[in-house]
């Protein structure tokens, strides 16, 4: 039984035989994808407050130090992103800030917002006004929280990370795998195109990795909502000195992800954290979101590659590189997945709508790939 699953009345058990079968997968068992894709984004850390204190994470600030972006900062960053040809506004914050963050809650109240999620809804609206499609990753969410922001997002996400109970998640506010999977379930029930992933090297074993991949596959088979799964290695930083998984490990687990997930779910590696060129033959078909404007606020020591570097990865693999929107193409034709507000943004009669449609229809951005 996955830790915490019963706490959320989550009926999900992964067959041991399926785990053993997936563990036999090697890179030789999968094929390289016929093309690679990426999204062009701006990264907006709405707040650095987080209820968790994971030992590998540099994103969160403790109570008294965490900050909130102002609406003026959000608008200015989104405007710079749209001017640079971006299509995605990636909003993130640590999981729902708990009661220790009195300053954050007091500031939200002073600005007239009941919660961080009502503020996120306003932030997403600003992004839409400035010509970007929101993709929010606000950690674990209840149904009420996700419903507050779902119709203002083209897609959303949360990293499952692992189904294992690992020490790196320990402490009085430890992450709960059952709660993460419940967030995936809520997204499926609400019809939200969703991104998730596994974090490799935080204390999980090979069986845990296989179980995590198969748990994501099972959730997708129920709801059809998972658009991509990220295979992300943990990396050294000021809070983590436990090392990163080696190339052989990354190649094997990436191949396992490709073999264990349905064909319509993309497998992504973040090119600032993983050696993408050496993983193309393991079944990846997406290089994630990269920004010509902002840093990776979760991993600030690891710079985004220049857009030309993504082209070089594709050229090395002898496959085309295609830009995409933050919501995958297969969801765009179905009203059940895309809200009227998002659809109106894509179809707007201005330079932003033209950019969205060029990326959607041709995989090409009028801004080209000349910048970072």
From TrEMBL:
It catalyses: 5-amino-5-(4-hydroxybenzyl)-6-(D-ribitylimino)-5,6-dihydrouracil + S-adenosyl-L-methionine = 7,8-didemethyl-8-hydroxy-5-deazariboflavin + 5'-deoxyadenosine + L-methionine + NH4(+) + H(+). It comes from the Archaea. Pathway: Cofactor biosynthesis; coenzyme F0 biosynthesis. Binds 1 [4Fe-4S] cluster. The cluster is coordinated with 3 cysteines and an exchangeable S-adenosyl-L-methionine. Its cofactor is [4Fe-4S] cluster. Its EC number is 4.3.1.32. One of its GO terms (molecular function) is 7,8-didemethyl-8-hydroxy-5-deazariboflavin synthase activity. SUPFAM superfamilies: Radical SAM enzymes. It is an enzyme of class 4 (lyase). InterPro entries: Aldolase_TIM (IPR013785), CofG_family (IPR019939), Elp3/MiaA/NifB-like_rSAM (IPR006638), F420 (IPR034405), rSAM (IPR007197), rSAM_sf (IPR058240). [4Fe-4S] cluster binds at residues 50, 54, 57. Pfam families: Radical_SAM. Keywords: 4Fe-4S, Iron, Iron-sulfur, Lyase, Metal-binding, S-adenosyl-L-methionine. Residues 36-272 form the Radical SAM core domain. Catalyzes the radical-mediated synthesis of 7,8-didemethyl-8-hydroxy-5-deazariboflavin (FO) from 5-amino-5-(4-hydroxybenzyl)-6-(D-ribitylimino)-5,6-dihydrouracil. Belongs to the radical SAM superfamily. CofG family. NCBIfam families: F420_cofG (TIGR03550), PRK06245.1 (NF004884). The FO synthase complex consists of two subunits, CofG and CofH. This is 7,8-didemethyl-8-hydroxy-5-deazariboflavin synthase. The gene is cofG.
């Amino acid at each position: 039984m996955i830790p915490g699953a019963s706490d959320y009345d989550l009926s999900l058990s992964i067959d041991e035989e399926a785990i053993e079968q997936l563990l036999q997968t090697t890179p030789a068992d999968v094929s390289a994808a016929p093309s690679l894709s990426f999204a062009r984004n701006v990264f907006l850390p709405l707040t650095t407050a987080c209820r968790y204190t994971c030992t590998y994470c540099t994103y969160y600030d403790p109570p008294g130090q965490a900050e909130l972006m102002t609406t003026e900062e959000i608008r200015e960053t989104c405007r710079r992103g749209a001017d640079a040809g971006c299509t995605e506004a990636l909003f993130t914050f640590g999981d729902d800030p708990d009661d220790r963050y009195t300053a954050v809650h007091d500031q939200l109240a002073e600005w007239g917002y009941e919660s961080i999620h009502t503020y996120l809804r306003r932030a997403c609206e600003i992004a839409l006004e400035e010509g970007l499609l929101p993709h929010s990753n606000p950690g674990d969410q209840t149904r009420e929280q996700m419903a507050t922001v779902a119709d203002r997002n083209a897609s959303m996400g949360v990293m499952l990370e692992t189904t294992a109970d690992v020490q790196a998640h320990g402490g009085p506010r430890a992450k709960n795998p059952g709660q993460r999977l419940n967030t995936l379930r809520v997204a499926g029930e609400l019809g939200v195109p969703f991104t998730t992933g596994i974090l490799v090297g935080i204390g999980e074993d090979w069986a845990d990795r296989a179980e995590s991949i198969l748990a994501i596959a099972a959730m997708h088979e129920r709801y059809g909502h998972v658009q991509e799964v990220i295979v992300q290695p943990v990396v050294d930083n000021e809070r983590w000195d436990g090392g990163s998984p080696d190339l052989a490990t990354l190649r094997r687990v990436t191949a396992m992800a490709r073999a264990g997930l349905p064909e319509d779910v993309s497998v992504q590696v973040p090119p600032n954290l993983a050696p993408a060129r050496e993983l193309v033959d393991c079944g990846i078909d997406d290089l994630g979101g990269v920004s010509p404007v902002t840093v990776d606020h979760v991993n600030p020591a690891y710079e985004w590659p220049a857009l030309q570097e993504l082209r070089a990865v594709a050229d090395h693999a002898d496959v085309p590189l295609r830009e995409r929107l933050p919501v995958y193409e297969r969801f765009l034709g179905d009203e059940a997945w895309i809200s009227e507000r998002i659809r109106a943004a894509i179809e707007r009669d201005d330079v932003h709508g033209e950019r969205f449609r060029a990326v959607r229809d041709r995989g090409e951005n009028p801004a080209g790939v000349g910048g970072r």
